[in-house]
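# step 3/5: fold
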Amino acid sequence: MVIIIGAGPIGLACGIELKKRNIPFIILEKGCLVNSVFNYPTNMTFFSTSDRLEIGDVPFISHGVKATRREALEYYRRVKDAYELPVNVYEEVLRISGGDQEYVVETNKNTYHASKIIVSTGFYGIPHRMKIPGEDLPKVKHYYDEPHPYANMNVLVVGGGNSAVDVALETYRCGSAVTMVVREKTLKPGVKYWVRPDIENRIKEGAITCYFESNVKSISPDKVTISTPDGDVTIENDFVLAMTGYEPDFRFLEMLQLEFENDAFRTPVYNEQSMESSRKGLYLAGVVCGGYNTSRWFIENSIVHASQIAEHIQEAERIKSSRGQEKKAGLLD
């Protein structure tokens, strides 16, 4: 049996490819189905069109050109049901021991024996921390759901990408006094083209205050201090929404005893054809392959990992079966 860790879109795609090849498997997910998509902002719209998010040849029809979070959640539920994928949600993997063909996977609920393991854990579970005083205060949020809780509050949004821009605009239109802190000279080039004019105009007219080339220096219960090119600035503050991005669970990857490239992104070592990691019989799929470079892999360009892995596992099973038959026939010692 193959154990797939992670029930995101790519984990589901891996399950579909294994099922097509009649290879037994089970998917283990520490949260809910497509947990990363569930944790996106309530009103989020995908950058990609719905057809680019499809897996398993199941059509994804959205009401608009760009799919919404709600539509994606419904779609991936339908995919799971259509293929009758065995998914155990709220089951966290705690330890993995053994090796190829003899892996032992211990979870908070059970112990499994597996011939191969596929890790497709994504990166949304662990936020990039600012590592500044006050970051652990209750008013600091690394995840954002909707604007209503921040209505008429002094809100600081940290970041210059799509998430930060969406949060700034939504909270501004909910009556919040919004200040943005952007580390770079400008907003990120990848900001959605249909949103960029809106945020740029709000900043230009002063409706949203923005400090570029700046960083949050410290956070207190009712204020924040910002380090800017013109010196430190302290402003009144009720909430800090830190849209600073996310990273893979490196502690989990290290627990798996994987090797990493000697680069700034801590990229895990893997074979680009088979997606097998430095540990034989353990494969990597999806954005987890990029290490800190979480912008390298998306749903649409990493779906191919599923078929690459399934084909390699199928070939390994064929060789194993062939050798078993030869041994039984007395052709091998």
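# step 4/5: annotate
The mean pLDDT is 93.
# step 5/5: archive (pending)
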